[in-house]
Amino acid sequence: MRRTLPALALALAVAACASVPGPATVGTPVEPVARQSYAAVVIGAPPLLGGLGSAVAIDDRHVLTNSHVMRLGGMAVEGATLVRDDGTRASATLIGRSEAMDLAVLRVPEGFLAPARTAKAGPLPAQPVWAAGTTTVGPGLAQGWVMEHDAAIDGLGQGFIARMGALMGYSGGPVVGPDGAVLGLTTALVSPGAAPLLGMLTGADVDGLLRPEGREVFVLGIGPAIDEARRLIASAGR
């Protein structure tokens, strides 16, 4: 019992510390996206009684996030609270999940976020990238570089692999290049190891915090994600 109390205390202490990444991104290429097109995705009361992720707007009514963000305790959820840079909150409704990639589309109140500017092509090898995210503890900004500029992972989709310090709350959030255009969505660790278990036990991505050099992260490409999102939106009749 003595061993579980510190983890429980940590989780309860950090639950109120989650914040949007805008202030951390000042002066970086990801700042405009984080300020205008990004929202934290809050489900329930994270970390113990809920989940936390990220989303980015593709038009004035829809945002993209990862499908796994819209799950709680292994169960699918249909709605979430979005929190934008100025702290304003709004309810979002799931309108579709992809069966081909780790992608979900949420509908938000019109004008809640501005659409992000997206890249017309994928990244170059070794190109620097920046990611924005929201976590219960840890930085809201990660910087890294492209390891594999063209990669596909079954169940996750088509995109690229970057080494960067993105933490678990970054899932579904924007990854941008030097020009500030969104290249993709932070989606999954290539080799997660014990990181998910540590996160569940502590309420924080301890593995990520202990790796200042970053980890190998799969980024779902924004082109395939938007194409799939448009299909899901059309199928939902919105």
Q: How is the topology of this model organized?
A:
Blueprint: H1 4-14, H2 31-36, E1 38-45, E2 49-57, E3 62-65, E4 71-72, E5 75-76, E6 79-83, E7 89-97, E8 104-107, E9 128-132, E10 141-153, E11 157-164, E12 174-176, E13 182-189, H3 195-202, H4 206-209, E14 215-221, H5 222-236
Antiparallel strand pairs: 1-2, 1-6, 2-3, 3-8, 4-5, 6-7, 7-8, 9-10, 9-12, 10-11, 11-14, 12-13, 13-14
Strand order of the largest sheet: 1-2-3-8-7-6
Query: Rough shape?
Result: globular
Along the chain, the helix and strand elements come as HHEEEEEEEEEEEEEHHEH
Our count of helices gives 5
End-to-end distance: 51 Å
Structural summary, described in words:
The model is unreliable at 1-17 (pLDDT under 50). The longest helix is centred in the last third of the chain and has 15 residues, at 222-236. The chain is globular and about 40 Å long. The chain is α+β, with helices and mostly antiparallel strands. The chain has five helices and 14 strands.
In brief, what are we looking at here?
The protein is 18% helix and 37% strand. The protein has 5 helices and 14 strands.
List keywords for this structure.
238 residues; alpha+beta; six-stranded antiparallel beta barrel; 5 helices; 37% strand
